[in-house]
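ugh ok fine here u go
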Amino acid sequence: MDTCIFLRHGEVDNPKKVFYGRVLDIPLNNKGRIQIESITEKITELHLQITLIYSSPLLRALQTAKIIANKIDVSITPIQGLIDVDIPALTGKPLSLRKELHAKGEDEYSGIWVERGNETRDHIAQRMQRVFQRIKNENKNGFPIVVSHGDPLLCLLFSLENPNKKLPRIGELKKPVMQLIKDAELF
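structure:
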């Protein structure tokens, strides 16, 4: 496999601005559907032979995968390992807490939050690496699309590009990825 396209699901409604992780299975909103239709057009312009779409089993990811699959006529394989983060200690709590944690040099995947049941960054990266290895093994001659969630994809991409480096906090991972998105002019 020479190429793999990684996508985060499209935008969802989160009117209460809370952490939702894998517990709240919420759908795409209209803007999210438009985002995915737009990125699907960009994918089709690449003229890649997309072989399959692998998706998180959560609704927002499956809806994203279905929009793409309908346009490029490929099948979808849901994979549990692509699911969003497990953050029971924060589910339903205000997202503003995330900014506070990051400002203090902490994140939701370490310290007290892990003690309260949240998944660690290393665990997220390892499960995503296992899934990616499976995808590579199943797609020796094709171009799959992987639809997952923001933080798991950040952990995977960092660990693939930096196999011998310790995963930094999530806040530090987002900065270079957001710059890549801006540079690529995806939206």
